[in-house]
Specification:
By secondary structure, this protein is an alpha+beta fold. It is built from 10 helices and 11 strands. The radius of gyration is 24 Å and the shape is globular.
Length: 361
């Protein structure tokens, strides 16, 4: 019983630190202010601003509720441990303490998401590398992996642009993934992913190595931080070539946007209405311009934080081995899983958690 008491005491100590790191008292004050704002007339006149504020309110309420729930559970466990007959409940108490510890560990992970845009939605792009149909199939496997991961967290996924492969898979695909701190969790997936397997496209089942590049950007709302004067933009409109329904195919709803100063080109063709695709294209462009500036800042800091590598070919972050043995290994953190099919089915939390912890050190 003394061991259980000590574990509860340790959890209370961790919980106190967690309250401070998450700034729970500040969030309570923020909740009060936002709740008052929502009741004011005209709050929903600015739809985007209102949605942003309600999202912040929901996130704050969620964290406060989780902390208060843990406080309540630890208090109840303390009372039970000190009560008569507690010795007969050792097994149940150990289980409860373990569950509280696991819940706290999940909440502690959020303290590693302190970046400016970590709370933002994510823009995930996957590009097949050299290798023809093999690489295109691999790119589609990665797309499915991230979709399954996002679905498991209850996040929303929208395919913004997709270029199908000639025979199978995809040449490239861009998705927006909307959910609580989606960019913060997914940003570490940025880089080259390598697959080794027996080729399903070769009659001799030869061993094949394929590569795909994953890009992850935050979805940045319109602001002065990434200015986009209309004089710098060139718009083109065309008929969508992918999914979207008959209406999309009949009219020029798809959008291609070129940024003259940088030469960046982005495409959006997922929506039925041209105006909506314009909005998505602007968000994609804003994110890519932010990435360029962020890479400049990171390069300047490399003397303090070590060598900075772009997410380009040769900078492989993870290997997925299906043959001759089975393993997925992250080359940055050393985190390894011996069930690659579970990983490819969306179970990538271990890799994400390990990378977040390494970034915080």
């Amino acid at each position: 019983m003394e061991e259980i008491e000590q574990k509860i005491a340790d959890l209370k100590g961790r919980l106190g630190l967690l309250r401070d790191k998450l700034k729970i008292e500040e969030k309570k004050a923020q909740i009060k202010i936002l709740e008052e704002e929502i009741t004011k007339p005209g709050f929903w006149d600015d739809q985007e601003g209102a949605q942003r504020k309600t999202k912040i309110l929901s996130d704050c309420q969620g964290e406060v509720k989780q902390i208060e729930s843990l406080v309540e559970k630890l208090g109840s466990l303390e009372e039970i441990v000190r009560s008569q007959g507690a010795d007969s409940l050792v097994t149940d108490l150990e289980k409860e303490v373990k569950e509280v510890g696991m819940a706290m560990e999940k909440l502690e992970m959020t303290t590693y998401l302190g970046g400016k845009y970590d709370i933002a939605d994510a823009i995930v792009s996957i590009h097949a590398g050299q290798g023809g149909v093999e690489a295109m199939d691999w790119a589609q496997m990665l797309q499915r992996m991230y979709v399954r991961y996002a679905e498991g967290r209850g996040w929303k996924i929208d395919i913004v642009d997709l270029m199908p492969g000639d025979e199978a898979g995809v040449k490239s695909v861009t998705m927006t993934i909307s959910g609580k701190k989606a960019y913060g969790y997914l940003k570490g997936e940025r880089g080259v992913h390598r697959l080794v397997r027996q080729s399903p496209f070769n009659a001799d089942k030869l061993r094949q190595t394929s590569f795909a590049l994953v890009e992850v950007l935050p979805q940045i709302e319109e602001s002065g931080e990434v200015p986009l004067p209309e004089s710098d933009l060139v718009w083109e409109f065309f008929r969508a070539s992918s999914h979207g329904g008959q209406n999309v195919q009949k009219v020029s709803t798809a959008v291609r946007l070129r940024h003259k100063p940088s030469g960046i080109i982005v495409t959006s063709q997922s929506e039925r209405y041209q105006e909506r695709n314009r909005e998505i294209a602007l968000r994609l462009l804003r994110a890519k311009l932010w990435e360029i500036e962020e890479e400049k800042r990171q390069t300047e800091k490399k003397s303090l934080k070590g060598e900075f590598k772009l997410a380009g070919w040769g900078n492989q972050i993870r290997s997925y081995i299906l043959h001759p043995y089975k393993m997925v290994k992250d080359l940055r953190t050393g985190f390894t899983v011996n069930d690659p099919f579970a990983v490819l089915d969306g179970e990538i939390e271990g890799f994400i958690d390990a990378e977040l912890k390494s970034l915080s050190n």
